[in-house]
Amino acid sequence: MARSQITGKRRLLANNVSHSNIKTKRWQQVNVQLRRLWVPELKRFVRLYVTTRDLRTIDRVGILAFAQQHGFKL
Fold it and tell me: Tens digit of pLDDT for each residue in 6-53?
């Protein structure tokens, strides 16, 4: 199942809405990528499944700070 290892973000249930306004259930998948991220504090790479939104936040605040905010131990 596609799931972010740090935030735990996963698929959401949504509706397809037709032109006649008939609603049918569907899944919205998250954009999860397997990435090899450098952790400067540990001086090593870490392989993680993270969403693209997580990657943007990691670029801004740093991987270690982001992991600590979400209670994830590297």
Answer: 999 999 999 999 999 999 999 999 999 999 999 999 999 999 999 999
Assign 3-state DSSP to the chain and report helix, strand, coil percentages, each to 5.
25, 40, 35
Nearest C-alpha neighbor of 65 from the set 34, 47, 39: 39
Owning domain of residue 30:
12-69
Q: Are 35 and 50 in contact (CB under 8 A)?
A: yes
**Number of structural domains the chain divides into:** 1
In a domain? residue 74 = no
59 alpha carbon, distance to own chain's centre:
14
Contacts for 71 with CB less than 8 Å, ≥ 6 apart: none
